[in-house]
Amino acid sequence: MAVHAHPDDESSKGAATMARYVREGADVLVVTCTGGERGDVLNPKMDRPEVWRALPEIRRDEMARARRILGIRQAWLGFVDSGYVEGYTEADHFEKLPEDAFAREPLEVASAPLVRLIREFRPHVVTTYDEDGGYPHPDHIMCNRVSVEAFDAAGDPERYKEFGQAWQPRKLYYQISFSRSRITALHEAMIAAGRESPYAGWLDRLEGSWDKGGRITTRVDCADYFEVRDDALRAHATQVDPDGQWFSVPLEIQRKVWPTEDYELVRTTLESVIPEDDLFSGIRTAMPS
Question: Has this prediction a pTM greater than 0.90?
Answer without folding.
Answer: yes
